[in-house]
Structures are given as C-alpha cells and as structure tokens.
Amino acid sequence: MRDKLLAFLEQFEGKPMVWGRDDCTASCALWLQANGYDVPIWPYASQDEAHRLIREAGGLVNIWDGSLAAAGLMERFDRPALGDVAIIDTRTFGQVGVICGSGGICWWRKNEGGFWLTPRNFVKVWAVS
Questions:
Q1: What is the DSSP letter of 11?
Q2: What is the domain partition of the chain in residue ranges?
Q3: Cβ(60)–Cβ(95) under 8 Å?
Q4: How many helices (H) and strands (E) does the chain have?
Q5: CA pair distance 81, 100, nearest whole angstrom
Q6: For 23-50, how does the pLDDT look when each residue is reduced to its tens digit (9 = 90+)?
Q7: What does CATH list as the number for 2-126?
Q8: Between β-strands 94-100 and 85-90, what pairing exists: parallel, antiparallel or unpaired?
Q9: What Cα–Cα distance (Å) separates residue 89 from each residue in 2, 94, 96, 106, 121?
C-alpha cells in the first residue's frame, strides 16, 4: 500500500491544484477510484461552488458519506490506517479531505502538489482495505 500511495501522489507534485478536478476532496476520490471504489468526483469547478455545495449539504462529511457508503466504504472507528481517507479539522481552512499515511500523518492536496501534516482532529475516517 505504501508504494502504491507514493506512486499515486507523485502525479500531483509541482502541479497547481484545480477545483473540482484534483483539490482535497477530488484527489481523495481519485485515490479511491485507483483502489477500485466507484466514487464520483463531485460537480464543482471553483472554490465558491465547492463551498456552496458543502454549505447546502450541511458539511463536508455529509457530502462524502452518501457517496462513500454507496461505494462500499465503511467508517473506521479505530486509528486511521495507511491509505484510508479522512476529513480533518484545520484552523485556517476548516474541514478538508486527506489521505492517511503511516504513524498518524496525512497527505493534503494543496496549491502546487500536496504536503504531509499531523491532524489535530479526525472528523471522520473511511477504511480503504
């Protein structure tokens, strides 16, 4: 799983993030698709559209829940595992989607690539296994 994840993340390095194509939620959906899950890329093309969809749904978790459950993903209640997807809280940006690495770190798609961080709070985690 480690090598598969690192190879997947290479495609984003040095490339500007595009809303609705490979932002923090869409990149998680792409990761799930790469692992055989039939999940959609949600329909938005800008930050404003994404935030409007999140508001209308009552939060990012609500948007993810229906699609991920329909694809057969279950919530993980114990410690996140390598390759899982999650929604975390950030101080500056609110809730964002991430892909979980080892040892409690997560990869977040942002700007020119992505970066690894240690979340202060996991809102919800879905098992990819």
A1: T
A2: 2-126
A3: yes
A4: 4, 5
A5: 7
A6: 999 999 999 999 999 998 888 999 999 9
A7: 3.90.1720.10
A8: antiparallel
A9: 24, 5, 7, 12, 6
